[in-house]
Amino acid sequence: MNKKLVAALSGGAALVLALTGCGGESGNKKLDNWAKKICDQMPPQVKRIQDANHQIAGVQTDEDSKKVQETDSAAFQTNVDAYKSLAAVVQNAGAPPVKGGEANQKDAVKALEDLSGSYAELKKRIDALDVNNKSQFGESLKGIAADIGKLGGKSDDALKKLQSGDVGKAMAKHPGCQKTPATPSAK
Question: Looking at the record, which segments are called Disordered (predicted)?
Fold first, then answer.
């Protein structure tokens, strides 16, 4: 279960980074300004999500069920807030000035809001667990870990669509949207 949970959490971090571009140049000033609006506000939220996911992964081998519950609950709440903030960032930036930009923005906002809602549900589930029944607690954690794994692929397409083509190129020029090479690829 622990390896699955860590892999699922890594997938969630990769999903956030799907908003980042892949390099290249864009000559569209309006698009560059739009990308800057997004990229200047993303790093704190991405860091919050990554830190929360590290906290979750860090307690999965802990024998203290109460500590696992408290840590996971707090981390899930952090993810609720961070994904909600990312949705607001994309919403407030407006549609990227490209063909299909409005639909792509709308899809990305919905995907981020859905992720926020999914983590809110996970928080409710973890908070409701009986920490005194260790076997039931462990089984319930497995179910939660499986659901976290599903979140990684849930909204990936909309985010990839938002940052495709010229939008991705414009975003890649801004430090807040550049991928860090420290994360190894799963490919």
Answer: 165-187
